[in-house]
Amino acid sequence: MQLYKYMSHEDFLSNFKLRFTPPAELNDPRECVPEIHIKDPRGYLSNVIQRNFESGYLHLLTEHPTMTPEEALRRCISASEQIEQDYNDNNDVWVKRIFDKTMKVTNRNIAILSLSETPDNELMWAHYANSHQGYVVGFDSESDFFKPRKDDPKTCGELMPVQYSDTRPQVFVEPGKIDIPKELFFTKTNRWSYEREWRMVRMQSAADDILPANIHLFKVPELAVTSVIFGYKYPESKKAGIEAAIKAVAPHIMFHNATFNHKSEFVVS
Known about the structure:
- This protein has 6 helices and 16 strands.
- The protein has about 270 residues and is of the alpha+beta class.
């Protein structure tokens, strides 16, 4: 299967490195934004109290050598009662804390590659290929680059189609555990369905290059690239030099042009 990447910067044409984007930097602020559900609210609260009780008790005895165990115990019991009261009175605040933590963890660790099934979507040429001044790169989805690696976490490495739904992905929280499903990274609202998007998730730490501005680059094997399509506003003066440079290292890559024909139809030839 052929998949395509709309691009505005020419860097890829010289280094064959794809940018993977942290969720918070995707173009739709609602992407990768889950709905949080606490599976067992009372069990979750008990787990929080227990963890705070144990660490708090040891902290008090360590930091205050003159404090008696009875006083430390009394203070921990009082703190536990306050946690329970706060949980009962401000449940939405607790859910937001979990939400913020989930977003923080994913944005620090995850990066996403977005591709499309089609190379001739006029809106995408305008939005992602510098108003037709950029280009589109075709990829062979069967390349090993698009397959999971040995040490990939369960959410990483698999090329999957995006599901379009106006229902937010759900993250279920259990005592001591947050289960983040793959769907969180592969769901967009229906208004984006025209993109016919496929995605792959990688860990940011696996990037071949990490540049300023949180840019994570992954090197693509030349054989994974099948074609380059120049936008109809792409400078003619640059095409020959780029084709020659790429053919020197990857002679199998085909070159095409996007244009409007005499009937004002958008075509790739």
